Amino acid sequence: MSTLWGNTKMKKVAYLILAHSDPLQLDKLCTALDCEYNDLYIHIDAKQTSLDVFREAAGASVCFLEQRVSVSWGGITMIDALNLLIKQALLKKNEYTHLVFISGSCYPIKNVKSIHETLVQSPTYEFVKYIDMRESPEHYLKQITKKWFNEPVIKFSQPGSSHLLSPYFLEKAARALLNKLKLKNQWNENMVPYYGSTWCALTTDCCQYIMDFQDENPWYREMNKYTFAPDEHFYHTIIGNSEFAASSTGAQPFAGRGLWRLANFHIIDESLSKWFTVDDWEAVASSDKFFVRKVRSLDGTELVDQINRELLI
Prior knowledge:
This protein is of the alpha/beta class. Helices cover 34% and strands 16% of the residues. The chain is built from 11 helices and 11 strands.
């Protein structure tokens, strides 16, 4: 297959975008990624009751998922949302070389042509790196061997009050208590646990395998239901225990704690919580990565404007 830009036979790239807020920034992200060789699939957290403001911002060229889940930080619902995105994109899997996982607060720092060419020139390669969690028994392994209660244990139909005696507050207190109990989670020892960044790029064949594996092994989701941040090990473990491991960036030597060490395409600050601004321009402009994470309209507009002017031409 020719990889010349402009060849109509060239496969596309599907971007799977998880977003929960900031429609202005999402609009800029969609605009930056918009081209004839990209399709964008977007899941908006179900806690946002209406998609209208996001649709208005992003325009009509993207696919917003109608089926949505309420995503909890560090919970299994992150996987549920990603699964919905994968399923939607796989309906047109023959059109794509890779499915790229990003969030609404990511932003490209290379133009779409260079990103697309990197992916299309490696049509059978999985751009995902990970570590063996067993090499970090005091930290990463505990994320799967202990039960973590990051999902609500009681569902409320209406947002709760922050009053100390409200059901919402009591539910959060119950989860905090459950977490302190340090209950044991049963992990299948036949599955080597692997850990890495959520934000990666996988071939459609690999993504189809991931979905088929879950269908054929319903115990796998149950085993991960109470793990911590399953989006950082759920898919990695499936890949690392499959034939796709041989054609991926794959297992890395454990060099210490820090998800930033395992970034595939992103600049990620060591703190994981820093929002990038124009003050970080030098680091952004000199990076060989494809995306910066995290940016927002509140304090990142000037940075995004400069990226658009100088890097995305």
